[in-house]
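Thanks for the sequence, V.! I ran Putative cation efflux family protein, CzcD-like protein right away. Repeating your input here for the record:
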Amino acid sequence: MDRTIRLAQYSLLLGILILALKAGAYLLTGSVALYSDALESIINVVAAGAALFALSIARKPADAEHPYGHAKAEYFSAVLEGVLIVLAAISIIYSAYQDLQAPKPLEALGLGLLVSLGATLLNAGYGTYLIRTGRHLRSPALVADGQHLMTDVVTSGGVLVALGLVALTGWTILDPIMAILVALNILWVGGRLVRSSMQSLLDEAAPPETQALVRRLVAEHAEGALEAHDLRTRHAGRLTFIDFHLVVPEHYTVGQAHAICDRLEAVIEQEVPGSEVTIHVEPDSAAKHRGVLVL
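Predicted structure:
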């Protein structure tokens, strides 16, 4: 089984466990801050399921109707997760506002805090692992899932601090205030996640360092060619599509030009993992005398 699929399955199972723990903490205490924490865990479960579904689609090979593959399906999962985060934040603010109007005493705070702390530690460990592994595997869905878990960790930490202060001071108003702060943080993270995923859906270019690497590789390994220009790149999930024009002497045969292209494609795809290279060959009469000059 694909490693990214297996990680997404573990994420879904962990999300269900965390949800059960945080829902239990809320039911024990009646805290609106813990309610906000539990509500975010519901979003985690839905998002993990969406990520698993998107990954299963993204790993399908290219076909006649999708000649460039299905890798962009991962970004739809990340966008959905961002939207769900925003909806959760709105629900939390509404509940906190109601609690501000009619504060209520909290119960069994000690046990509730212990349960929430255990769930937070589980999230922190797996969220860190997901982000690191997702970046290594070039999986936007896994990175988004991990970032969501780490957002949950930060908000859970804030909730635990606020409820600890409630237990020490008896100031129950800190509970809804903390819930609103949690919601605002969730809104910021959700908006950033949606923005990042939308940029990728709109064919955002590869990072500048990747483009610089491609230019250097062309300059060093295109022996026999004269120059390269009109470099374009775009991301689609774990894939990076690269294309450019390569100028060769007019007297070169198709076979000679093809050999240079094969050499360039091999070295670029080796140095840029997940890349797919397309090269358009032109005669030297089409040279633009700009772009990459071959060494």
